[in-house]
Amino acid sequence: MSAPKRDVGIVGGGLLGVGVAYRLACAGVPVTLYERGERLGGLAGTTDLGGYDVDRYYHAVLPTDDRVLALAEEVGLGPDQVRMRRLGVGFFQDGRLASMSTPKELLTFPGLAMRDRLALVAFVARCQLRKAPGELEDTPLEQWVRRTGGDRLWDRLWRPLLESKFDGRYEDLPATYLWSRMRRTAGTRDRSGQEVMGWIHGGYQELVDRLGAEIRRRGGTIHLGTTVSAVPSQGGRAIGVVTDGRLHPHDLVLTTQLRPALDRILSEELVTALGPDRNRYLGIVCLVMRVRKSVSPYYALNITDRSVPVTSIVETTHAVDPEAVGGHLVYVPHYVDPSNPILERSSREITTEFLGHVQRIFPAFSPDDVIASQVARTFAAEPVHRVGVARSAPLLAAPGLAVASSADIYPEIVNGQAILGVAERVASELLNSTSGQSRLAAA
Q1: Burial grade of 386 (CB within 10 A; 0-12, 13-18, 19 or more)
Q2: Are strands 96-99 and 89-93 parallel, antiparallel or unpaired?
Q3: Separation of CA 333 from chain center
Q4: 381-427 residue pLDDT tens
Q5: CA-based nearest residue to 335, from 163, 200, 175, 217
């Protein structure tokens, strides 16, 4: 008679936690998922914006996102529920708009001499052809870009882009950041070179809701609106989770939070077992609004003109069905260091300022066209991997404790495809060992 399978408690109902819980439940592992929100999804979930559910933060599905598309199909979301559209990507450079929707348009990038434009085309092609990071992991990004693309390309394009994305702190980035970004965007182009992106009808929320239903159908338990206040330990071993002052024992606890939030709930000896944090983090302040008419001709407008202090303007209804969200959906994100005081400013102040930035870039836009808006923010939205810092960490951080998060996507950049890759690796590692025995039983 086989021994009973050990049960797993998972802290966090975002895409990672739900993805792992689903795979474990499919394997017959007793699993309990704890999510403090009233719905699953986390940063990938939706929010109510004037009576319509919209993505809290913007998300896209690429034609090459095989994990996302396969999982969607697995839970009953067929190809007819994934909307793929040709769309445009642009830059706001030197006070004017420049379309960068095809490789040919790279040769028209403003403010660059022809030799620099050719260097840009060669740089992008080099990134797309390179299959593995290799020495890029230990190479500072600026050093690599200056060497391969030239000083002017760095000063006119990459430096302002990185200053915008990383709130001025890019000196510790590895070269893998741009390499990964360029390789991912290569998957957005069709045969003509035009950008193509997609949207699951209902967003990632629809995907995680269906995964949640499958977890329950297979015997798993999901607690929504439930905050895990502690992961206690005895003799160095995690023993379960605490909610509302009550201990819920588990043979194994898997946490999915980024480290700043994780340290607040782990016992002191479990924090010690984890060791020092390897990363720093980016926060985000994001204005999302439903408007009556299209604002931008581009899905994503990258802002390299640093007189406009936001990261981009993203009009997701170039991919998202406008009828599903009651208008045109526009996001104005500003990625910031967690110490940036903008994170403490009122939503009204942020809204007024960001609307002004949109109006400067698109003079035809009027705040009167806004149907509904809100400001989303978080102090730790994305991990920043630093050059030369060891990135591999064991999943089992201590007896009874497994730790995984979006920090484990490296060398990829944060997106649904990368997160599901982490979920698959985590579930596989928890279920299998080189001896063929379950690591759950040994944890």
Answers
A1: middle
A2: antiparallel
A3: 13
A4: 999 999 988 676 789 999 999 999 999 999 999 999 999 999 999 99
A5: 163
Q: How many CA atoms lie within 13 A of 159 on its CB side?
A: 12
Residue 286's alpha-carbon distances to 21, 125, 237, in angstroms, are 29, 32, 39
In 243-257, which positions are buried (b, 16+ CB within 10 angstroms) versus exposed (e)?
Answer: beeeebebbbbbbbb
Partnered with residue 112 across adjacent β-strands are none
* Cα atoms in the Cβ-side hemisphere of radius 13 Å centred on 282: 27
Residue 162 half-sphere exposure toward CB, CA atoms < 13 A: 21
Tokens at 13, concatenated = 């109902």
Residue with tokens 């960068």: 100
Q: Confidence class of residue 1 from pLDDT cuts 50, 70 and 90?
A: very low
Q: Are strands 252-255 and 8-11 parallel, antiparallel or unpaired?
A: parallel
Distance CA 282, CA 177 (A): 14
Quick one: which of 130, 379, 103, 304 has its CA closest to 139? 130
Q: What is d(CA 380, CA 340) in angstroms, rounded to the nearest whole number?
A: 12
d(CA 389, CA 380): 19
C-alpha 163/C-alpha 317 separation (Å) is 27
CB 179 within 8 A of CB 411: yes
Phi, psi (deg, nearest 5) at residue 437: -100, 150
Using only C-alpha atoms, the chain has a radius of gyration, in whole angstroms, of: 22
Mean pLDDT of 226-231: 98
Strand partners, 331: 288, 314
